[in-house]
Amino acid sequence: MDTEKIALLIPIISVLVTGAVIIYAIWTQNKERLAMIEKGIDPLKFSRRPANQKTVAKWGMLFVGIALGIIVGALLIHYTTLSEPALMFSSIIFFGGISLLIFYFTIGQKKDESQQ
After folding, report:
1. Distances (CA, A) of 39 to 28, 33, 56, 86
2. How far apart are CA 93 and CA 66, in angstroms?
C-alpha cells in the first residue's frame, strides 16, 4: 500500500475506534444503571459528584492563560529573533502559571479562609 493511503487511513480508523469506545462506555453505564434499578438501588447515589465551581474557574483561568501564552509567544516569535520552541514553551508555561497565581490570590484564598 502507498504511504499516502496509510496516512489517510490512520485518522479515519482512530476516529472510528474512539467513537466505538465512547459508545461502548455509554452502553455499559446504561446496563449498569438498569441492573441497579432492577435490584431496587437508587443509581443517583452512585452518580458523579457535582462540579465544584472553584475548580471550574481554576481550569478556565488556566486555559485562558495558556491561550494568552500562545498568542504572546507567536507575537514574540514574529517580532524577535529568539529561538521559536523555547520562546513558545516558556511563554505558555509563564502565562499558565500567572493565571493559576491570579486564581489563588482572588478565589483560592477565599476558599482557604472559609476552611479555618
Report:
1. 17, 10, 35, 58
2. 7
